Amino acid sequence: MQRLLSSEALKRHGEAVRLAGWVHNIRDFREVKFLILRDRGGLVQTVIDPGARIDMTRIGKEYVVELEGKVVPEPRAPGGAEVHIGTLKVLARAHEPPLEINRPQVLAKTHLDKILDHRPISVRALPIRAIFKVQAEIIRAYSEYLRSQDFTEFKSSKIVATGTEGGANLFQIEYFERQAYLAQSPQFYKQTMVGSGFERVFEVGPVYRAEKHETSRHINEYTSLDFEMGFIRDEQDVIAMQVGLLRHISEEVARTCAEELKLHGAKVPVIGDTIPQLTFKEAVQLVEASGHRLPAGDLDPEAERRLCDWTLKKTGSELVYVVGFPLAHRPMYTYFREDDPATSRSFDLLFRGLEITTGSQRIHDHDLLVAKMRERGLDPELYQSYLSIFKHGMPPHGGLAIGLERLTMQVLGLSNVKEATLFPRDRHRLEP
Q: What is the 3-state secondary structure (H, E, C) of 25-83?
């Protein structure tokens, strides 16, 4: 008999089925004994047939078992049916779990460090497993949509010779007889692929930032959802592409992850044809009019929260773009507005009070790019492999990066980005 998942078996009323998974819970009453089985399809209630010779005293939580039995309709059971067990075999025994993974109320009060210390076990808990089901669907929908728009997926090296953003916040590594770094971004490679003739490319991959932050919104290794596109008119073409992308992601997550969203009491954002935009100057005026002073040239977390609150009340949108940041506070490859050279053609996307995207139109002229490097005190000789593509015809282009963990965090309403990171890396955590 072929093994079925719990989600499949519950549809087979009156049939004999074979299941296998983990013992999620045991309920031992005098008249009847229930065993709740968990597999990748979910949970199924099983009942020990009084005639079956099964010693339940030798079975514990998280044991891996295989069973055969008959599916019987039961309106009170999850899924409207249960399995009456005829035979049960223990495939692997288990020690007592270090966490209450089958009691969401208790798990919710457990300190995050303990949950992360025991990540191989904690991820078995349904609310935590739901996080990574949603995250996987975000990645699938992201890639699916961009392929539908004629983007090509590629993979870039994560060991690089120079910093993408001028050498700040780099993890230095020993690379044989040379000094190398972990990549902060696939930016240079994205631009290279656009200039090589692919025109539209995307990547899903890790990036590394040696920032000494210890906050609920920062980690030192995260997954970046990057895309770059050629032959754009300006940054608004990139924004328009992302609006369609995010609408597709929201619709797909809502369609495929209804149960996972329900576990977290979460709803995906409703995204129409456009997302509201504010210029950086407008954003500063709004924030400072509300009584909050900003650092020069940028937005801080409190400003992002206030801007999202204002946008939600004003437009009903949970997302807002801030465009036109000061050029001096953006990377050297960022294009500027011809009518205002001190203002960049860049943008951030804020979602429920948090920045989840940074993007821009990039400089595509070789000589201008070299000049901008020198203005920032960078030596163009150190960037020759990057600059070489601009010598041979680079189209106007732009792109963006979305932080996967931050996006997951905001969709599900989590309080810390580490909750949306399977194996987070920060200043103090290298395991598991």
A: EEEECCCCEEEEEEECCEEEEEEECCCCCCCHHHCCCCCEEEEEEEEEECCCCHHHEEE
